[in-house]
Amino acid sequence: MDNIIAASIKERLRKVIAKELKVAPETIADDAHIGKDLGIDSADMISVLYDIEEEFEVEISDEEVGEISTIREMFNVVNGKIKQV
After folding, report:
1. In the chain, beta strands by DSSP E
2. Domain count, the chain
3. Per residue in 19-39, pLDDT tens?
4. What are the distances in angstroms from CA 58 to CA 24, 27, 29, 32?
5. Can you give the CATH number for the domain in which 11 is found?
């Protein structure tokens, strides 16, 4: 069950990011670096984070944002927030 939920979260997360980048969600790898591989700059990141917070009804702190450099790390933060609910 947890694997199904995790897969759903990853899929939704990719869709949010893909929408911002105007790419197909399946092209976004778990180990993709947000800046280097995906080209998300600080302005784009604000928009992406806002969309993620809206999609998952969570709040991501500035400290947590500073710890996110890959899609996997972003998933871990979002997944952790959802599990707290």
Report:
1. none
2. 1
3. 999 999 999 999 999 999 999
4. 24, 25, 23, 22
5. 1.10.1200.10
